[in-house]
Each structure stands twice: as structure tokens, then as C-alpha cells.
Predict the 3D structure of the following.
Amino acid sequence: MENTSEHSGKPFVRKIPIFWWIRRWVDLRFVLRELTSVCVAAYCMIFLFYVRSILMRPEAYEAFTAQLQSPVMIVVHVLLLGGLLYHSITWFNLAPKAMVIKIGTWQIPDLLVAAANYAGWIVISFVLFWLALN
Amino acid sequence: MKKRLTEPFWWSLFGAGGVVSAFTLPALVILTGIAFPLGWLETPDHARMASLLQSWIARIVVLVVVVVPMFHWAHRFRFTLEDGLKLKKYDAQIAVVCYGIAIAVGVLAVYLMWTL
């Protein structure tokens, strides 16, 4: 009896290339969506140090805000904004799938759940602008 | 085993962080990173900003806005590394590093809000 490698009882494993997600647009879009979390973490850190500078002396706040005016930092923040907007939009669009709300037998339509999320986003953003400007 | 127990915990923090960041971060990044530095809106003076952060409620809001999204990042980035770069076999180490960074930022944020 011959026991070739094809019959050695090992499970068949399909070779998946390491950058499997680069070939198809849907896969790439999925990875990009997941990577928006890097923008989230990066901005959270910047925001923490922004708040820290406010809580220190006025000179610390002035120095920090002066740093934010450098062209490099502006570009970084524009890129962060792009990532954060992509996160918000993909998050709210998935919200109806994540929270299925039923009143009796009537299920609140997906569109309404998404619309409520977008409305909340606008209200919260407005409040933050108002707080910073008044 | 242990993983089955902790996974829902990290997942709910991921979800909470996703919600908090989706609602608050775009407006904040526009204000602090674009509109103020470019002079589209006048940068508030220090006294005004400091008065905003005087109450403990405001500081708790800052903590929530900074820390909860870090756990969103930790969870998402963990699985992006593992699936995207096929590093599933290092799951335990990747998880410790990702959640560890989020916890460290959380401790730092609490320390800053408490002492400053």
C-alpha cells in the first residue's frame, strides 16, 4: 500500500494570500472601515492632550493650539476627519441591523432607525459647536 | 474557555465606543483640528475653555469621549490585525497589547481629569 502525501489524512487547507483583502473592492472597503478605528484612537489621544493643555496653565493651551496650526497638523486632522466621517456613516447605516426595535408586532423600519441616528448626530454636533462658541 | 466569558464584555465596549465616537468625534475634530487652527472660527480663549471644564460632569463627559472609543479601537484593531494580516495564532498577545493600550489611556485620562 502506498501512502502518498495526498492521502496522509491532513485536512485540506486553502492557501489564502496575506493581503487577501486587496483584490476585491468589497474586501478593501471592509478593511478601510475597520481601520477607521485607528483615526478614532489617534484623535482621542490628541483630544485628551488638548483638554490637558486647557487644564494646565494658559501658556500650555496657547502653545498646544499654536502647534495645531502647523500645516502638517492641519493635513493630519483633515485625514482624521475623513476617517471619522466614514466611521460615523458606516456605523449609523449598520445601526438598523444592530438594533431591531419592535412595538407590539410592528417593527420600526430600518430607514427610521437610521434617520433617528443621523438626527441625533446633527443635534449632538450642534451642541458641541454651540458649547465651543458661546 | 476563558475567551467565551470575556468576549461579550469587550464586544459591548466596542459597541459603546463606536456609538460615542460616531456621535461626537467628527464635530470635535472639525472644531479643534480645522476650524480653530485655520481661523474659520475664533479660537476660544483659555479662561472660557477652562470654565467649560470646571464641573465634574464635564470631566466625566471628557473621560467617556476619550476612553470608551479607545476600547472600540482596541477591539476592531485586534481583529483587523488578526484577519487582515492572518495573525490569528497570536490572538492572545495581540489582545493583551490592544486592550492594554486602551486601559493605559483610560488610567492616564482618569489621572489627568482627577489631578489637574
In short: Helices of chain A lie at 25-55, 58-67, 71-98, 110-133. Residues 25-55 of chain A form the longest helix (31 residues).
